[in-house]
Amino acid sequence: MFKFAAVVALAGALFSGAAVAQPAKPTVVLVHGAFADSSSWNGVIEILRKDGFPVVAAANPLRSVSGDAAYVSDVVGSIAGPVVLVGHSYGGQVISTAAIGHANVKSLVYVAAFAPEAGESVADLAGKFPGGTLSGALAAPVKLSAGGVDLSIDQAKFHDQFASDVPAEQAALMAAAQRPVTEAALTEKSGEPAWKKLPSWFVYGTGDKNIPAAALGFMAERAGSKRTVVVEGASHVVMVSQPEKVAELIEEAAK
After folding, report:
1. The AB hydrolase-1 domain covers which part of the protein (predicted)?
2. Residue ranges covered by each domain of the chain
3. Nearest of 72, 241, 91, 222 to residue 162 by alpha carbon
4. Mind listing the pLDDT tens digit for each residue in 127-158?
5. Is 27-254 a domain of CATH 3.40.50.2300?
């Protein structure tokens, strides 16, 4: 009788433990956009890691949509288990392409990001609604020996244009470390986007001068956003100035 009771108790403990065991959390892959780098996600990464999420901040090459998406696709393909794919700005176009063909990508999050339809480019969408002032804030283009040009934001105009709600000292560091993007990448047309098949979430600020809020709202509605968070007064780098709001939405998408 004692042995039987002990076996029953042990079995109960094992099944009870299995019942409360939590599945592994998905890996969050963060893809920065033009004029930024992976460090722009630092505040968001800190929160996600604290909450138990594995995180990879991919170094987006910013050379071409097809090439950049292929690289991010390779990163996603190296990850075992589910993935939440997050893109900022031009990175939104990249994740819209990179997610295709990956069954482990469960959701997309667009952070002040482009979500083009097939046949659209970043340049097309940036000019679709009034209010963007990026063209007047660009530095002189850098001619590339292989052809084409690199574009960056004039460091003296970076704070006001790109990161107006970030402290000036921090914005100056971001301006000096910004990653340029090729003009060809901004004009390359998208293929069929992943947001047509995957659930998506959007967050952006009303103070965005790179992509007008009207354009961001239009893309969110068109993509059937599960939830759209609009942060009053936030700049184009809402993930830098408001990492809590961005991380919260990513964690919602991860569920």
Report:
1. 28-248
2. 27-254
3. 241
4. 889 999 999 999 999 999 999 999 999 999 99
5. no
Q: Which residue has the tokens 């020996």?
A: 145
- Report d(CA 213, CA 45) in Å as an integer: 25
- The phi, psi pair for 13, rounded to 5°, reads -65, -40
pTM flag (> 0.85): yes
Distance, in Å, from the CA atom of 42 to the CA atom of 157, rounded to the nearest integer, reads 23
